[in-house]
Amino acid sequence: MKVRPLQDRLLVKRIEEEYSQRLDAHSQELLVGHVQLLLSYCQRFYGRQFTLRNHANLDVIARLENFLQQYFESDKPTREGLPTVQTCAKEMGYSPDYLSDLLKKETGKNTREHIHTFLIEKAKTRLLGSQDTISQIAYSLGFEHPQHFSKLFRSKTGKSPGEFRD
Questions:
Q1: Which of 19, 54, 55, 58 has the least C-beta neighbours within 10 A?
Q2: Is the model's pLDDT at 136 over the cut of 90?
Q3: How far apart are CA 39 and CA 12, in angstroms?
């Protein structure tokens, strides 16, 4: 039984009726109250999506990791640069904000943090598994400037890429 949509429509109807009537000293307070209630229902609905879909949410994490793995195994980093939150969300069929909210709820990290974590793990593997220069590794991962790579690497690991390699 779908009671909630009926109640929501009644709430919207009340807002419309109040707004269309002649305004008095209580009109603003009533309008604000109804709108706040409607927004509270919207927030509740939005939040429930994350708690009621746990199994499906775990699949999203796996799909994101799979996408990032394929992205970095291809030539896309050198052609297109670093993957963005927008790129990941589009690939997965979500809005960027929704994907970040979903990941944050499930893992405590948003989409950008997932990308950075994946990127740093790839960088560590390449730093330890090759003789490539740090600049070569930075460019191969999609960075336009090796300095940005070094700054991100240091912020995530506490060491420069050179210090990590040594």
A1: 55
A2: yes
A3: 11
Q: Does 5 score more than 80 pLDDT?
A: no
Longest dimension (CA), the chain: 77
pTM over 0.85: no
Whole-angstrom Cα distance, residue 153 to residue 120?
A: 6
CB 85 within 8 A of CB 112: yes
**Domain ranges for the chain:** 4-52, 56-165
Find the Cα–Cα–Cα–Cα dihedral 29, 32, 35, 41, rounded to 10°: -80
Residue 158 carries which side chain, given as an amino acid letter?
A: G
Supply the pLDDT for residue 2: 47
Map tokens 């069929």 to a residue.
Answer: 93
- Write down the CATH superfamily of domain 56-165: Homeodomain-like (1.10.10.60)
More confident residue, 107 or 57: 107
54 pLDDT higher than 60: no
